[in-house]
Design a protein that fits this description.
Helices cover 46% and strands 12% of the residues. The protein is α/β, with parallel strands linked by helices. It has a 4-stranded parallel β-sheet. It has a 3-stranded parallel β-sheet with strand order 5-6-7.
Length: 200
């Protein structure tokens, strides 16, 4: 999960992610420059699995799609955004944290969901409990994920990915500390590999 204020930082940031071994990025729609940042990354790194996060409206979803994203993430279950993505065949991972929200997503045919906010809601113990009745659902926890708990989340069989902002905090991006970001990404990739050893 990455917040980019200045689109000029988008391409160097994407380079740091790719060089660090993470060919995936979620750029949040929290700034005026988000769509332009997405466009620049999509143009320079077409193989990067690029997504838009914090998408709150159909209009933002359309803007993200036009910018070249390959998936969309929302903080909650927004039927209008989900409908837009399904209509245009854009993968959508809506945020959920209750059984009612999970079932709303299931009713739309979605079974990979963002679990947000993960740590404030009770972390892995809460996710383990809430996932029990929903054997067909997989989760992407975000919110409070960090190097200390990343491996534990990934070891849970219902977790397919995690999102976190510690890899590229806004102040590092604004200071153009792209080498520092690359090193942080490398460290995270090592945690992921250790947590998923033996998996396909």
């Amino acid at each position: 999960m990455i917040v980019i204020e200045d689109p000029e930082d988008a391409v160097p940031l994407a380079g740091a992610l790719v060089e660090g071994g993470l060919p995936c990025a979620e750029i949040t729609f929290r700034t005026a420059g988000a769509a332009e940042a997405l466009r620049r990354i999509a143009g320079e790194y077409p193989d990067l699995l690029l997504g838009a996060g914090t998408v709150l409206t159909r209009e933002q979803a359309a803007e993200a799609r036009s910018a070249g994203v390959r998936f969309i993430v929302t903080p909650g279950f927004n039927p209008a955004v989900v409908d837009y993505c399904l209509e245009h065949e854009v993968p959508i991972y809506p945020g959920v944290c209750t059984p009612t929200e999970i079932e709303a997503a299931l009713s739309q045919g979605l079974n990979v969901l963002k679990f947000f906010p993960a740590e404030p809601m009770g972390g892995l113990p809460f996710l383990t409990a809430i996932s029990g009745p929903y054997g067909m659902v997989e989760f992407i926890p975000t919110g409070g994920i960090n190097p200390e708990n990343l491996g534990t989340y990934l070891a849970f069989q219902k977790v397919v990915a995690c999102g976190g902002s510690w890899l590229a905090p806004p102040k590092w991006i604004q200071a153009k500390e792209f080498e520092r970001i690359r090193q942080e990404v490398e460290a995270a990739v090592r945690i992921v590999r250790n947590a998923t050893k033996g998996e396909d």
